[in-house]
Amino acid sequence: RTKEVELFTRKREHIHLNVKREELKDLQVVVKSGLVRSNALLLSVGAQFNVGFAVEVLEWFRERLHLITGIVDRGGDYVPWTLRWAQESPINKKKLLKLLEIADLGIEDFEERLPPKDLDLAKLPEPIRAWISEALDKGEKLSFGVETLRPVFEKGEKVAQERFSLHGEESAGTERFFGMAGPLLDSLENSRVLLVDEFDARLHPVLARHLLSLFLSRDTNPNNAQLVCSTHNVKLMDKDLLRRDQIWFLEKDHYGAASLYSLADFKTDRVRKTDDFAAKYLAGRFGALPLVEESTSPLADD
């Protein structure tokens, strides 16, 4: 069984290393030499000087950590990543199509939308013409996004397929799901840690629950990938889905400072395994609730 070991602590420019750890000796030389500026990260500086421990840690973050932020709109920033991942192998695309089928989105296939071979740059607006010319000069492949293929039915029989622009014609939820799907499947396959901000944004609660459950089953997550996500969907706070130590709260004080704590931090006489976690949370038993003054109108005069 593993246990946590403190390797170093830092408070502004004061750095204290665990000198008992053999792997930190080279890093200690870097610190004693005064090479770490007050605004520089210790591990980054260590990696610059080829300290093996620091290089190994940074490589872990670079290779094993995925981040999907909730800041970008619709999740479209991750669509190119998912598209490239699917194009790497037929197996990847098959997995992605299977996940789209499970999600009941009605998408049979998808393709990269490429510019027509007879594209006349002279007829395009100047900003687009400049963008295309710059991309061609750099040797980049031009891509106009993703098209989804959906079945067309007539009298209950499939008669054709119709194309839709993922960004322009599909819903925001469909685009976000597509963008999340690549990092999610890649994380499950390669034992990565996936961080997702606003996990449930634009997703149906049932769909969000299913995606979360993929990381909780040995059958779908045999490589022990991890999902760390923020959400406002209290229905995910389910005793049949998550353990108490897997549920965390973020509470802000009146200064705006945030504190993070787990449901497992509460004594068993206040929360039991059989409790309805969501109901107790909404009743204010665990904190981390906005203090909304419901009786006060924002339109009322002071």
Mean pLDDT: 91
**Strand count, sense and closure of the main sheet?**
3 strands, parallel
Following the backbone from N to C, one meets helices and strands in this order, namely: EEHHHEHHEHEEHEHEEEH
| Total number of beta strands | 10
Helix content: 25-40%
Counting H and I runs of at least 4 residues, what is the number of helices? 9
Principal-axes geometry comes out as: globular
* Distance separating the two termini: 61 Å
The poorly predicted ranges are none
Gyration radius (Cα, Å) is: 25 Å
Please explain how this structure is put together.
With 302 residues, the protein is an alpha/beta fold. Helices cover 32% and strands 17% of the residues. Helix 2 packs across helix 3. It is globular and about 65 Å long. The protein starts with 7 loop residues before the first strand and ends in a 20-residue tail after the last helix.
How is this structure best summarized?
The protein has 302 residues and is α/β, with parallel strands linked by helices. It is built from 9 helices and 10 strands.
Features:
302 residues, alpha/beta, 3 domains, 3-stranded parallel β-sheet, 3-stranded antiparallel β-sheet, 17% strand
